[in-house]
């Protein structure tokens, strides 16, 4: 996979015109679809599940990146893969048996990511970094779109890159939360490979042009 990837978050799309927004992403220079799944327990919000995944599967022509903000994610990963997920990311904080869950995702045919909340240290991934395909660093507290970017994320990107290199690992680094035209270039320069952008894209007067600018 190439770096400097943009993954528009469908959490910020217009759900009354979801297929239209999916087609916009298909036309654009975006690389992935990012889908946030929330259960109202792990985070204080509820978002979409399998019905929306079916719509995405029918219309999306690009890589589908699913972020599970749920408790007991191991109970649902196989079904999300069956519904079209190419990558499934689970929270370190939600997985009692993280290695087992990662292997389950990969055995079912998808790539596996691990997500860290803003206050979770990168060092906790040391024993699994060589086994995973992606590290997703939350740059806001998960649960709601439109939050302010946490500046400490730049340091965490550097720490994650160091951990990957020191273990000869190949995991990509994804950043989710508060990404916009003002910080995208600096995030890529810091070592991020994938940026999730929600409000920056879908509140823009020209979403396709915004996606293009985020990649510069």
Automatic annotation (TrEMBL):
Belongs to the ribulose-phosphate 3-epimerase family. It comes from Chryseobacterium lacus. Its cofactor is Co(2+); Fe(2+); Mn(2+); a divalent metal cation. It catalyses: D-ribulose 5-phosphate = D-xylulose 5-phosphate. PROSITE patterns: RIBUL_P_3_EPIMER_1, RIBUL_P_3_EPIMER_2. Substrate binds at residues 9, 67, 143-146, 176-178. NCBIfam families: PRK05581.1-4, rpe. Catalyzes the reversible epimerization of D-ribulose 5-phosphate to D-xylulose 5-phosphate. This is Ribulose-phosphate 3-epimerase. The active site is at 36 (proton acceptor), 176 (proton donor). InterPro entries: Aldolase_TIM, Ribul_P_3_epim, Ribul_P_3_epim-like, RibuloseP-bd_barrel. GO terms for cellular component: cytoplasm. One of its GO terms (molecular function) is D-ribulose-phosphate 3-epimerase activity. Its EC number is 5.1.3.1. It comes from the Bacteria.
């Amino acid at each position: 996979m190439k770096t400097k990837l943009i993954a528009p978050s469908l959490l910020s799309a217009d759900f009354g015109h979801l297929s239209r927004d999916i087609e916009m992403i298909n036309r654009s220079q975006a690389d992935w679809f990012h889908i946030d799944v929330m259960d109202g327990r792990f985070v204080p919000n509820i978002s979409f599940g399998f019905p929306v995944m079916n719509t995405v599967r029918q219309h999306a022509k690009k890589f589908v990146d699913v972020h599970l903000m749920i408790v007991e994610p191991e109970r649902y990963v196989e079904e999300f893969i069956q519904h079209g997920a190419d990558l499934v990311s689970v929270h370190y904080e939600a997985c009692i048996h993280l290695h087992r869950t990662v292997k389950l995702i990969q055995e079912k045919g998808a790539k596996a990511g691990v997500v860290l909340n803003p206050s979770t240290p990168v060092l906790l991934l040391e024993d699994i970094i060589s086994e995973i395909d992606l590290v997703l660093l939350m740059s806001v507290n998960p649960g709601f779109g439109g939050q302010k970017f946490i500046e400490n994320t730049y340091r965490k990107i550097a720490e994650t890159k160091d951990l990957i290199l020191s273990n000869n690992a190949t995991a990509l680094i994804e950043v989710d939360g508060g990404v916009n035209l003002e910080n995208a270039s600096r995030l890529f320069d810091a070592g991020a490979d994938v940026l999730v952008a929600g409000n920056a894209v879908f509140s823009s007067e020209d979403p396709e042009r915004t996606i293009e600018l985020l990649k510069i």
